[in-house]
Amino acid sequence: xxxxxxxxYIQFLVLQKNATAVVTxxxxxxxxxxxxxxxxxxxxxNTERPxxxxxxxxxxxxxxxxxxxxxxxxxxxxxxxxxxYLWDGKTARRIVGILERLLNVRA
Length: 107
Hints:
The protein is mainly α. The protein has one domain: Rossmann fold, CATH 3.40.50. Helix content is about 40%, strand content about 10%. The chain has five helices and three strands. The protein has a three-stranded parallel sheet with strand order 1-2-3, with helices on both faces. The radius of gyration is 17 Å and the shape is elongated. The termini are far apart.
């Protein structure tokens, strides 16, 4: 485990991408780790990003489960998950297409 001083956003993404696992309570990090394919243990009873649990690499855990769950990840049994449908980086393009059709214009 590495404890680090606060870093910028890009540096933090690099840390996540190269991590074996991430422990968090942040919804945004749940999404980022799912996209990066990194097991994520979220110390909460619920999440506003349930797709990260249903399809992604996120697992909701209590404080008493953390040691066991980290051990599972280190033993190669971390949640694999997948990138959810439509998390393909093309959202803006789809929105523009919808607006063009609705407004009957071409951007």
